[in-house]
Amino acid sequence: MTSISAFRDEMPRPYRWLILAAFVLVTLLIGWASGIVTASKIPTWYAGLAKPWFTPPRWAFPVAWTLLYIMMAVAAWRIWSGPASPARRQALGWYAVQLVFNALWTPAFFGAESPALGLAVIVPLWISVLMTLRRFGAIDRAAGWMFVPYLAWVSYAILLNATILVMNR
């Protein structure tokens, strides 16, 4: 039986680009699915919330998330493309964990209309993003750096989420 790493190493170059496209597509689909939950809540529930002065304009969210999702996917692909190792397996495991928390935040905050539940999800998201950044960076410096804007955005989102929670108690 051929291992996945041997299969990957023997894969012709054009297929590696297809794998990159798959990483990007899957990651963007997670964001798109979250957007479905968000879309109906923005003009109704979210519009009625008190929000801090540092809330970004509505158009900034899809732009920021699209760029972040693409960078996340490229970083994960770079790690996947490297040699098989326990470190690589752990790094990609953390990538999967942060994707799960990423996907859970929108239903928690918007779907459940609960800034408190959103905060309960975004804190482990931040931890898993930090762990992914560290693991990726230990394997591939560029992949690690690609997660820095994501960590910054999630840090900002924690502040925004927590402030909305406090302002709407």
Explained architecture:
With 169 residues, the protein is mostly helical. It has helices at residues 4-10, 13-39, 60-81, 86-111, 115-139, 141-146, 148-167. α2 (13-39) packs parallel to α4, α4 runs antiparallel to α5 (115-139) and α5 (115-139) packs antiparallel against α7 (148-167). The protein starts with a helix and ends with a helix. Mean pLDDT is 91; it is low at 1-7.
Q: What descriptors fit this protein?
A:
7 helices; 79% helix; disordered N terminus; 169 residues; mainly alpha; single chain
Q: Roughly what percent helix?
A: over 70%
Instruction: Count up the helices.
Output: 7
Whole-angstrom Rg: 17 Å
How much of the sequence lies in strands comes to: under 5%
Rough shape? Answer: elongated
The oligomeric state of the chains shown is single chain
Question: Main β-sheet, in a few words?
Answer: none
* Mean pLDDT over the residues: 91
Tell me the number of strands: 0
Helix vs. strand class:
mainly alpha
How do the helices and strands follow one another from N- to C-terminus? HHHHHHH
- Note the gap between the termini: 58 Å
Contiguous runs where pLDDT drops below 50 for at least 5 residues:
1-7
Give the SSE map.
Elements: H1 4-10, H2 13-39, H3 60-81, H4 86-111, H5 115-139, H6 141-146, H7 148-167
Helix pairs in contact: 2-3, 2-4, 4-5, 5-7
Give a brief rundown of this model:
Helices cover 79% and strands 0% of the residues. By secondary structure, it is mostly helical.
